[in-house]
Amino acid sequence: MEAKLAQGPGRVKNTPLRFAADCMLGRLARWLRILGHDTVYFRAIEDADLVELAQDEGRILLTRDTRLVERRAARHALLVESPYLEPQLRQLARWGGTGFLAPDLCPRCPECNEPTLPAEKETVEDRVPLFVMRTQARFRACPRCQRVYWKATHVRGMLRRLRRTLGPAVQEWMEERRAKAAPRTPIRRDES
Asked: Are 135 and 55 contacting, i.e. CB atoms less than 8 angstroms apart?
């Protein structure tokens, strides 16, 4: 079955999308949040409730459930073909085009989907390891779950995985991000 969506992304390039992911797509939901997209996900939710939520909030419903896609109320759902993360990301990138890559990496909490906010170093020192306090200057915090985020080596790994998965479009996106970040934080080319 070919994955189709009745309406395309219909947005300005590089504007985050709004998704509702079914319970079979937890890893994808997390990565969509990392990519900057507003993605709701519940480990357990009735299909009818998920469809209603997606409709009420203007979200694109993502599902692996072929029966769910066939429901009239879910006519704007996107059937995710693969059970594996990398093909899922490729499918969504094909569907969304270059605009699938939102302007910022990790602007949302990967755990609870809340937008993260810049945090002063002094306000997070009791929530991060001492080494991190000594080596990092910038932090972001989630106002809902209180998790703290900083740019560490895992970011390079995430970018490598995205480049491997999504190909040349990621390289262009990374260059745009570097240019945007250059005045604030120079990034060495060998780090990405």
From this structure: no
Q: Which residue has the tokens 């990790």?
A: 106
pTM above 0.90, yes or no: no
> CB 118: neighbour CB atoms within 10 A?
8
What are the pLDDT tens digits along the chain (192 aa)? 333 333 344 444 456 789 999 999 999 999 999 888 999 999 999 999 999 999 999 999 999 998 888 888 877 799 999 999 999 998 998 888 766 776 666 788 989 999 999 999 999 999 999 998 999 888 999 999 999 988 877 777 887 888 888 777 666 766 666 666 555 443 344 443
Q: Is beta strand 139-141 parallel, antiparallel or unpaired with respect to 117-119?
A: antiparallel
3-state SS class at 61: strand
Locate tokens 């306000």: which residue? 123
Residue 150 is encoded by which pair of tokens?
């900083």
Answer whether 109's CB lies under 8 Å from 144's CB. Answer: yes
For 36-73, b/e burial (b = at least 16 CB within 10 A) is bbbbbbeeeeebeebbeebeeeebbbbbbbeebbeeee
CA dist 154 and 167 (Å) reads: 19
State the Cα–Cα distance between residues 100 and 192, nearest whole angstrom: 20
Dist CA 151 CA 71 (whole Å):
42
